[in-house]
Specification:
The complex is a heterodimer of chains A (309) and B (320). Chain A is built from eleven helices and seven strands. Chain A has 309 residues and is an alpha/beta fold. A seven-stranded mixed barrel of chain A has the order 1-3-2-4-5-6-7. The C terminus of chain A is likely disordered. Chain B is extended, with a radius of gyration of 30 Å. Chain B is built from eight helices and eleven strands. The N and C termini of chain B lie far apart (93 Å). Classes of the chains: A alpha/beta (309), B alpha/beta (320). At the A-B interface, helix 1, helix 3, strand 3, helix 4 and helix 6 of A face helix 1, strand 4, helix 3, helix 5 and helix 6 of B.
Chain lengths: 309, 320
């Protein structure tokens, strides 16, 4: 078909690594080996190395459920739990389910309300053939990016003490819809007092002015993991066929109309930042504009945090 | 041999909308159960022995579909797994109740619309299960997914059946009738399905590759539209020449489609379109501006570093 030829040409021109063709052996990831999991839980290789887990693999189903749930919350943060297993230095997320609580940023222990729900759900799942355990939690940051706030960091540190292995995932449904690509981040916190040896450069993202402080204070206390996705051979097949039906939706989607107020919000936030930078300029002592002053202005505009002062 | 009783089209007049999440859910459930039954070979030698026999097992999985019914439109949003009780030939009821409660807490608007299963065709025993569900929903749906991977297939192997009371041989009986459905997505769903389907570069990929990926998506969608219109055109030309017998219902549909096109010429559309266009241009301009000022800033920085007044280099003076 023309579409596949076009896709293949583009892939060739851009040296894209070929997506593995659906083949039954790729479905082995779905097999839950209870014995191996129990062994690795006993061995606890992550207890000694805070940077042990480096990758996350998310299944197509989990991603779909998380994004839809996050979007359905609108501008309210929502949260849920993820089910999966570990595999060496990777955490594999097989499924996700929503929790009936509104995760507002002021509630540290939102999960306390949901324990009963969680236990019930896990039990029914195990009966229905989903044997994996809870392996993390996810929540949404509608409109302000994928990072861990102060409350999130303390919640995650608590989780990592008592419920290892645990992973924190943040999704921004507003930015997902407006940019057309899934905005998601997976994090693990460092234990108290641990100083990371290297300073990884994280991908730049704009953060609104009212959240910048929260972001800056805690951004060194956790690290981001690489996310990759997987799907079964049947999923591949079905999704290919699905394309035949919803190419219409692709054409008819218009991110501008859907996200008008979000874009306006971003613009006003940028205006505020520029004003703040300008005020900083005029109120500081009059003199030649040294490089340090310029750095301060650039920091305000572009969110980087200066640790030394 | 089980006799399958099905009519070809339903007459209830309900329109069905199916979300891709349900399809991925069912497929995941099936894959999970299948891989638990056929554990992956631990060593390469056992693979050849076990693999051949175990490939044949294709378990049937069962579950429930939930969604919303507004008037004549039935929209299926989500689904969850259920247990099949072989002794009563029916679905485990208390389990269903428990799961329903849990899901009601998180999705208070969704009701049980029916059930799903995997297999190649609807079977007689399915009618038992169907009847059992009738006390929750008077007219439940039966969603059937065919998990066999057939590379030549063009259509989604998902069928939706409703039950209808037909009089056969003088006895009123319930039989399954196939209904048509459309795929409906929310914007977020579409993006994530697209994302997983084509495994686009998620993070790290530079802006250029992301833009290219996005444009490729739009490009293939347009190609699809083009090919479909071409097919229609070919068909109409053939009809005109007389190669193909005239089908009036099809001609009516095509003419109604064509009559919708002039909607783009209206003035209101032009106004809206131009406004949107101006907005986009304005934002691009603003972004370009910010980018420029940042680059200028860097230039001044570099200049000042090169001509630093505190260290005499070849007698050059500082530039403020």
């Amino acid at each position: 078909m023309d579409s596949t030829i076009a896709q293949k040409t583009w892939e060739l021109e851009n040296n894209i690594l070929a997506v593995e063709a659906p083949d039954p052996s790729s479905d082995f990831i779905f097999y839950y080996d209870e014995v191996a999991q129990a062994m690795s839980l006993k061995a606890k290789p992550w207890a000694n190395d805070p940077h042990f887990f480096k990758r996350v693999k998310i299944s197509a189903l989990a991603l779909l459920k998380m994004v839809i749930h996050a979007r359905s919350g609108g501008t309210i943060e929502v949260m849920g739990l993820m089910i999966g297993k570990t595999d060496g230095d990777a955490i594999i997320v097989m499924d996700a389910f929503a929790l009936p609580v509104e995760g507002t940023e002021t509630r540290v222990n939102a999960q306390a309300d949901a324990y009963e729900y969680m236990v019930d759900y896990s039990q029914t799942n195990k009966q229905a053939g989903r044997l994996e355990n809870v392996v993390g939690w996810y929540h949404s940051h509608p409109g302000y990016g994928c990072w861990l706030s102060g409350i999130d960091v303390s919640t995650q540190m608590l989780n990592q003490q008592f419920q290892e292995p645990f992973l924190a995932v943040v999704i921004d449904p507003t930015r997902t819809v407006s940019s057309g690509k899934v905005d998601i981040g997976a994090f693990r916190t460092y234990p108290e007092g641990y100083k990371p040896t290297d300073d990884p450069i994280s991908e730049y993202q704009t953060i609104p002015l009212n959240k910048i402080e929260d972001f800056g204070v805690h951004c060194k206390q956790y690290y981001a993991l690489n996310i990759s996705y997987f799907k079964s051979s049947l999923d591949c097949h079905l999704l290919d066929l699905l394309w035949n039906k919803y190419w219409v939706n692709t054409l008819s989607s218009s991110p501008l109309l859907g996200n008008g107020d979000y874009v306006a919000g971003q613009l006003s936030d940028l205006a505020e930042k520029l004003e703040q930078a300008e005020n900083h300029l005029t109120h500081s002592r009059i003199g030649p504009l040294g490089t340090s002053r310029k750095k301060v202005i650039k920091d305000i505009l572009f969110n980087s945090v200066r640790q030394s002062k | 041999m089980e006799i399958k009783r099905m009519a070809s089209s339903s007459s209830s007049g309900l329109t069905f909308k199916l979300h891709p999440l349900v399809i991925v859910n069912i497929s995941d459930h099936y894959t999970r159960v299948k891989s638990q039954l056929n554990p992956p070979p631990l060593t390469s030698t056992s693979a050849t022995v076990n693999g051949v026999e175990n490939q044949q097992q294709a378990p049937r999985v069962y579950g429930c579909v939930i969604g919303v019914q507004r008037g004549r439109t039935v929209e299926i949003f989500n689904s969850f797994e259920l247990l099949y009780d072989p002794s009563t030939h029916s679905l485990d009821r208390p389990f269903l109740k428990k799961k329903q409660e849990l899901y009601k807490k998180v999705f208070p608007h969704f009701y049980i619309l029916g059930w799903y299963s995997t297999g190649s065709d609807a079977q007689e025993s399915d009618m038992h299960i169907h009847r059992a569900l009738m006390d929750i929903n008077e007219s439940p749906l039966y969603v059937l997914l065919n998990p066999a991977i057939n590379p030549t297939q063009k259509d989604l192997p998902v069928t939706i059946y409703e039950s209808e009371l037909h009089v056969i041989d003088g006895i009123p009986q319930l039989i399954f009738v196939r209904s048509s459905y459309t795929i409906e997505t929310v914007e977020a769903e579409r993006i994530s399905v697209d994302h997983v389907a084509h495994l686009k570069p998620s993070d790290g990929g530079s802006a250029a590759t992301q833009l290219a990926a996005h444009l490729t998506g739009i490009h293939s969608a347009i190609k699809m539209l083009n090919s479909r219109i071409r097919v229609l055109h070919h068909y109409l030309v053939g009809m005109q020449k007389g190669d193909i017998p005239c089908e009036n219902s099809l001609l009516r549909q095509v003419s109604s489609l064509l009559r919708r096109l002039p909607a783009i010429e209206s003035e209101k559309f032009q106004d809206d379109f131009l406004m949107e266009y101006n907005d986009t241009l304005l934002i691009t301009y603003l972004a370009m501006f910010t980018n420029c000022s940042s680059t200028m800033n860097e230039l001044v920085d570099k200049f000042n570093t090169a001509y630093d007044r505190h260290s005499r280099r070849g007698g050059r003076t500082a530039f403020i």
